[in-house]
Amino acid sequence: xxxxxxxxxxxxxxxxxxxxxxxxxxxxxxxxxxxxxxxxxxxxxxxxxxxxxxxxxxxxxxxxxxxxxxxxxxxxxxxxxxxxxxxxxxxxxxxxxxxxxxxxxxxxxxxxxxxxxxxxxxxxxxxxxxxxxxxxxxxxxxxxxxxxxxxxxxxxxxxxxxxxxxxxxxxxxxxxxxxxxxxxxxxxxxxxx
Length: 193
Hints:
This protein is mainly α. The chain has helices spanning 3-34, 38-64, 70-169, 173-189. The chain is rod-shaped and about 145 Å long.
């Protein structure tokens, strides 16, 4: 391995250490803000180390075909220390800003859905309830008016049909129909005298 390749590899590992620091801060802030359960944190820990390992070894393979030397670890540690000493606060502020922007976008989206979908549906529902209630009130009012106007006629009709109702409600009419029908039958089809 030539000296220039070693310097390229050292630089790549320094950048890899910076990337691991950025990933760690992102992971730390997001897991803290999202309030994930402990079992999810364990899965996220494993995922962080898998992504970090793949990232470092991919960079190592791109710079010197995957040869592992002591200066590789020195570059990684220097990158991580450099990140936490110089860039961590700035990255944490940037991540906090991005989280606030996303939260604001979600809040605006919810408000837009509320304004353009939920409130019109509520308004239509209330209008339909008011219209339906108005029609029911009108129907009840008209029913009462009609009942009041027709009440005298109803009394006259009841008075006129009272004998009919008495006859219909007594159980004598089926016998009378039977007797009348039988007498007519005998008269028409019975033996002649």
